[in-house]
């Protein structure tokens, strides 16, 4: 298994058409917290916006997600809130 990291900047969207199967394993807040509020991570696929998780500073290190995505899917990932998010991808 090969893992990589993707940083989602707050209030930005990341759009990608997948060329490989992948799994979003977990999400965590980056170490440089700007605000002490909830950050929500969403994924949009097939015109449906789905909440993957909510991260609260100083409560949990990370959240396990285990969201499997397939080749050819077009996804949009976004972080809403005051902080950037680090996604672990397999």
From TrEMBL:
Superkingdom: Eukaryota
InterPro entries the UniProt entry points to: NPL
Pfam families: NPL (PF17800)
Domain Nucleoplasmin-like: 6-87
Record protein name field: Nucleoplasmin-like domain-containing protein
Top-level taxonomy: Eukaryota, Fungi, Fungi incertae sedis, Microsporidia, Tubulinosematoidea
